[in-house]
Write a structure and sequence with these properties.
This protein is α/β, with parallel strands linked by helices. The protein has 13 helices and six strands. 48% of the residues lie in helices and 11% in strands. It starts with 33 loop residues before the first strand and ends with a helix. This is AIG1-type G domain-containing protein.
């Protein structure tokens, strides 16, 4: 796999161009918000989903109640945290040695799709329990999944902070084994701790964001990428363009069809559009309003309007749809083989 290369801010998307150290709104243009893409990795039951919920400040990822994995596929959620647009990709057991090759290969491809063009932070989620041989092999797994030098973009996030002794995480680390300390050094000694039972404790989230920003700045204010990510991003952009053209054609067809209506019905169509847009937040009200419009002589009007709104919505979400298109690539198979090979050595 090719070695990593950071992307200068001017080459990243517009929302990545701003300085990473300061979140003061006075320092940012009014029309821009910084974006940070975070991928959560770690063994099953470590608390990835709970940590994602804590960062975003709402229960949106399904949390495991035991060591059994609840999340079965990668999922992506976005929210604004401290003035930053945070994109979190929660992964299933990518490190789970029991995952069949076909499932693992699919999940690896989806994880790369959802974090394209590359993550700003790879967050390794670990609980504060004993350090296991499986976790000791984590560096190799992260390299196998994301590529060489990915650990430069990785920080450790400890969970179950409520179970720590009064000395806190510092005491836990100081009393840990030499093997564990060497393990942490491979990630630059970057770590943070969460008590996921206290989602309302936003101070722990703000400190996490500051540590992540420090790491991003040390990486030339860029995100992690490699040849695999570059290839995936090209495919996503191609899919995005194809979908965009498809929906624009369909939308134009509906616009042309609406233009062929008699003038009086064109006016009714505009009125219906405004009313439906006003009710967009309430699906139930929208459905009821559409039923009321059935009395119109040409009930094709609400049909046209509804389909126009549908394709406008599709255009707005075209990037997300493009990301969800699966690609069977030799690289995904190669990564899968490497990860499964590491399982055998544990």
């Amino acid at each position: 796999m090719a070695s990593s290369s950071t992307i200068p801010a001017e080459m990243d998307e517009d929302t990545d161009k701003q300085p990473v150290r300061r979140r003061n709104s006075r320092d940012l243009p009014s029309n821009l918000t910084m974006t940070r893409r975070i991928v959560l990795v770690g063994k099953t039951g470590a608390g990835k989903s709970s940590s994602g919920n804590t960062i975003l400040g709402r229960k949106i990822f399904i949390e495991a109640k035991s060591s059994k994995s609840v999340t079965q596929e990668c999922c992506k959620e976005t929210a604004e945290v401290a003035g930053i647009q945070v994109v979190i990709v929660d992964t299933p057991g990518l490190f789970d040695r029991k995952r069949p090759d076909r499932e693992l290969e699919t999940e690896i491809g989806q994880c790369i799709n959802l974090t394209s063009p590359g993550p700003h932070a790879i967050v390794l989620v670990m609980d504060v329990g004993p350090f296991t041989p499986e976790e000791e092999n984590t560096v190799k797994k992260i390299r196998a999944l994301f590529g060489d030098e990915a650990e430069k973009y990785t920080m450790i996030l400890f969970t179950h902070g409520d179970e720590l002794d009064p000395g806190g995480i510092e005491q836990y680390i100081s009393e840990s084994s030499d093997e564990f300390k060497k393990f942490m050094e491979q990630f630059g000694g970057r770590y943070h701790v969460f008590d996921n039972n206290k989602m309302d404790d936003r101070d722990q989230v703000l400190k996490f964001m500051e540590k992540m920003d420090d790491m991003v700045e040390k990486n030339d204010r860029g995100f992690y990428t490699n040849e695999m990510y570059k290839e995936v991003e090209k495919r996503i952009c191609k899919n995005e363009e194809e979908l965009m053209n498809k929906y624009k054609v369909e939308l134009q067809r509906l616009v042309d069809e609406e233009k062929n209506l008699p003038p009086e019905y064109q006016e009714k169509s505009k009125k219906i559009r405004k009313e439906i847009e006003a009710l967009r937040e309430s699906l139930q009200e929208k459905e009821e309003r559409l039923k009321e419009l059935k009395y119109l002589e040409q009930n094709k009007i609400p049909w046209i309007v509804e389909h126009q709104l549908y394709y406008e919505m599709k255009l707005r979400a075209v990037r997300q749809e493009a990301e969800n298109i699966q690609h069977n690539t030799d690289m995904s198979s190669e990564v899968c083989s490497k990860v499964q090979g590491l399982h055998l050595t544990e």
